Amino acid sequence: MTFLRRGIAVVAALPLLTLAACGYGSESKADNAKEKVAAGSSKIDGLDSVKIGYFGNLTHGTALVARQQGYFQKQLGATKAAYQIFNAGPSEIEALNSKSIDIGWIGPSPAINGYTKANGTNLRIIGGSASGGVKLVVNPKKIKSLKDVKGKKIATPQLGNTQDVAFLNWIADQGWKVDATTGKGDVSVLRTDNKITPDAYASGAIDGAWVPEPTASKLVAEGGKVLLDEASLWPDKKFVITNIIVRQDFLKQHPKAVEAVLKASVEANKWINANPDQAKAAANKQLEADSGKALPAKVLDPAWQSIQFTDDPLASTLNTEAEHAVKAGLLEKPSLKGIYDLTLLNKVLKAGGASTVDDAGLGAS
C-alpha cells in the first residue's frame, strides 16, 4: 500500500519484490469442493481462466470469503478462477502490468502509485471492498496518552504505505515535525514489516505501531493497548483500505468476466454482513489454506470486528489519502481523473436492488 515519489520507489520496492521471488505472487490452487467447476456450465467470454490476486490479510476478507464460499467460481461458470497471493502492493501492481493477474484486491496507495506511474493507462478501480481496520497500538507502560507519542519509536509497515502516510499526517496535525523519508524527528517512525512488528514490540525495539489488522490485534495480544482507531479521524468513521482493480485492456475485452467477479464480490459482502461469525470463520479457513496457519480467536475476533466490508470504494477518501501523501512530501500531486470505472459495479448493485455508488468525480469519461 505505497505512496512514493519516483526517486524513493525503487529503494522501497526491492525488498518487497524479493518476497515474491517465485514470480510476482504465490500461485494458489483450489482446495475445496465449492471451487470446483459446475457440470454443464459454460465459459464466460470464451476465457479458460480469470486470474485473481489478493493478500492473505483480513482487510482482503471479501476475496477470502468469496473464494472459500465458491462465489467466484459459481459466477465464472466453466471459466476457471485462478489465484495468486501477494505480500505487498508493488508486486501486485507489477503482476497486473505484466498480465500475470487480471483483477486484484489491493490497498489505495499502490493503486494510486501504479496508476500515476503508468500515466493512467494500466488500471481502473472497479469496486470497493473494505473500510477501517487500522489502529495505533502502544505499550501502555510507556505511552498513556496521545501526547506521550512524542519522542517515542512507532512502527509503520512500509515507507510511504497507506498507514505510514496516515501516521505522518496525524503527526503533522499534532504540530510535530518528522522527516518523511528518514522517519527522524519529534517521533521516530520505524518502517517495519508487519510480519516482524509483534516481535519488535515484544523485544522493546518499538514503543507502538500504526498498523492494519490483524497486526494491530496481534500487538494487543502481546500486551499492547489501542490508543487510537484511525476510523475516528474520518467522516462517518469510513475510509478506504481495500479496493478492487482491473487491467484496462481486460476490462475492455472481457466485461462479462469482470461483471461476474463483481457479482461474486457483492454476493460475498452481502453474506459477510448478514453472517459475521460464519464469514469470519470462512475467511480464517482460507487464510489457513493459503498460509498454513489460522489466526487464534484472541486475534481474529477483535480484528474482524474493526473492519467494515462495503461495495462502495469510498472514492472521496482515496482523494484525501493522496492529498495527505502530497502534504507529507511522498507523492507529487497526482492526476486521478479516470482512475475509477464503476459502471459494471453499479449495474450489479442496481440489479440486486441496492443503491449505486459514486466515483467522486474521478471516473473514466
Structure commentary:
This protein has 2 domains: 6-131 and 239-351, D-Maltodextrin-Binding Protein, domain 2; 134-237, D-Maltodextrin-Binding Protein, domain 2, CATH 3.40.190.10. The chain is 40% helix and 18% strand. The strands form 2 sheets. A 7-stranded mixed β-sheet has the order 1-3-2-4-11-5-12, sandwiched between helices. Strand 7 (153-156), helix 6 and strand 8 form a beta-alpha-beta unit. The protein starts with 5 loop residues before the first helix and ends in a 14-residue tail after the last helix. The chain is globular, with a radius of gyration of 20 Å. Residues 6-23 have low confidence and may be disordered. It is α/β, with parallel strands linked by helices and 365 residues long. The longest helix has 20 residues, at 255-274. The chain is built from 14 helices and 12 strands.
The level of helicity is 40-55%
Order of helices and strands: HEEHHEHEHEEEHEHEHEEHHHHEHH
Query: Taking Cα atoms only, what radius of gyration do you get, to the nearest Å?
Result: 20 Å
Number of domains: 2
CATH class of the largest domain, anyone?
Alpha Beta
Average pLDDT figure:
90
Q: Which class of secondary structure composition applies to the elements?
A: alpha/beta
Number of strands: 12
Portion in beta strands:
15-25%
CATH superfamily of the largest domain: Periplasmic binding protein-like II
Task: Categorize the overall geometry.
Answer: globular
Low-pLDDT windows of residues: 6-23
- Cα(first) to Cα(last) distance is 26 Å
The largest sheet is:
7 strands, mixed
**Lateral arrangement of strands in the main beta sheet:** 1-3-2-4-11-5-12
Number of helices: 14
